[in-house]
Write a structure and sequence with these properties.
elongated, mainly alpha, about 120 residues
C-alpha cells in the first residue's frame, strides 16, 4: 500500500483536528471541573496550561494573516504544513513557561478569589 505525501498530509490534518479538539476539550474539562480542593500548584498548572493554549491560538491566528506565496505551494510547503501545528504547540508551551505574559497569574488570582482559597 503506497501513500503519497498529499494523502499522508490529509491524514495528518484529520489527526491534528482531532488532537486540537481533544486539547480544547481537555482545557474545557479542566477549567469547568471543581477546583475548590485544588492545591496552589495544581491551580497554577491549570492556569499555565490555559495560557499556553491561548498563546497557541494566537500564533495560529497570526499565521493565517500571512499571505501564501506561489512558491509555497508544492511538496515542500506540504511538509512544512505537516509539522507546523506541533511547532506552534511547542512554541506556545515555551513562551508560556519562559514569558511573563501575566494571563496565568491573573487567572490564578481570580480563581483563588472565586474559590476563597
Amino acid at each position: 500500500m503506497s501513500m503519497d505525501i498529499t494523502s499522508a498530509y490529509n491524514s495528518y490534518l484529520a489527526a491534528a483536528q482531532t488532537k486540537d479538539n481533544a486539547a480544547s476539550s481537555k482545557i474545557e474539562k479542566t477549567i469547568s471541573s471543581d477546583l475548590s480542593a485544588a492545591s496552589d500548584e495544581e491551580l497554577m498548572s491549570v492556569c499555565k496550561e490555559f495560557e499556553a493554549y491561548f498563546i497557541e491560538q494566537i500564533f495560529k491566528g497570526m499565521k493565517n494573516t500571512v499571505a501564501k506565496s506561489e512558491e509555497s505551494s508544492g511538496s515542500t510547503a506540504t511538509l512544512v504544513d505537516y509539522f507546523e501545528d506541533g511547532l506552534y504547540q511547542q512554541y506556545a508551551k515555551d513562551a508560556s513557561s519562559q514569558g511573563e505574559y501575566g494571563l496565568a497569574q491573573m487567572l490564578y488570582e481570580q480563581m483563588k478569589r472565586n474559590y476563597d482559597l
